[in-house]
Amino acid sequence: MQTAARRKIRPFDWRHNPGFGIFSLIVMGFLYLPLAILVIYSFNANRFVTVWTGFSLHWFSRVANNGDIRHAAWVSVLVGVLATICSTAIAIAAALGFERGGRFKGEAAANSLVMMPLVVPEIVTAITTLIFFSSIGFHYGVLNLVLAHTVFCVPFAMLPIQARLNTIGTAYEDAGRDLYGGEWRIFMRITLPLMVPGIMAGAILAFVTSLDDFLISFMVSSAGTTTLPVYVYGMMRLGVTPEVNAISTILLVISAALALVAFLISRPNEAGAAASAATPAATATT
């Protein structure tokens, strides 16, 4: 009787709601169909974007042979790598402070302050950063971009790391302390190895965020430090061309691939975490 009653009482499943599947397809099509069209027309042989005349890689070749585009791409990668390193280091320290530092007064306010770039409109961040740099006379080209991107990317890098620390808990670290391991040794041999998936996922998200950023780069960049999104914006002032489609396709593929890698790395895997922590916990005192 009780078993039959439990089988009849099931949580409501939105997937079985009438019309939900069609509505989902419409939303997905609205979001991703323009991207598919952009990718398709980036292989168009015709100079006119909307007139298909045949398949061609000509525009990708034009992009690869354009010195200005290569320079803008190099600036984007350089700024992205440096900002990723700095923001990830700050994110590691912040995540450890929030998850392993114990409760403290003003913790919620501090966490909200770190996450503020996710809430505040990016245009506000870009304008205030430009005003701040101008007011102190800080005009150092790439360094301005790196600092601005670092501040903006910290929450993106911190979220996967903080989630990883919250997922693994403190059981492995407590086991190391039971074996009389010192805090630094426990961190290096237990906590840090277990944080690696979160660190890698956070670093990838930070790099993608920096690589794709436009508003902050547009406001802060100076002559000779134009990033690729800003350069594409300048090209679009003359109209959308197949070269713009080709550049956008390249950025889309790179961003999607890195986001997929970050997702796969950050997936919870308690069995793998336990296996990777078994040896460090046992050797924390050696």
Automatic annotation (TrEMBL):
It is found in: Cell inner membrane; Cell membrane. One of its GO terms (cellular component) is plasma membrane. The keyword Oxidoreductase does not apply. The keyword Transmembrane helix applies. PROSITE patterns: ABC_TM1. The chain crosses the membrane at residues 20-43, 72-96, 108-132, 138-159, 186-208, 214-234, 246-265. PANTHER family: PUTRESCINE TRANSPORT SYSTEM PERMEASE PROTEIN POTI, SPERMIDINE_PUTRESCINE TRANSPORT SYSTEM PERMEASE PROTEIN POTC. Required for the activity of the bacterial periplasmic transport system of putrescine and spermidine. This is Spermidine/putrescine transport system permease protein PotC. It comes from Acidisoma silvae. The lineage of its organism: Bacteria, Pseudomonadati, Pseudomonadota, Alphaproteobacteria, Acetobacterales.
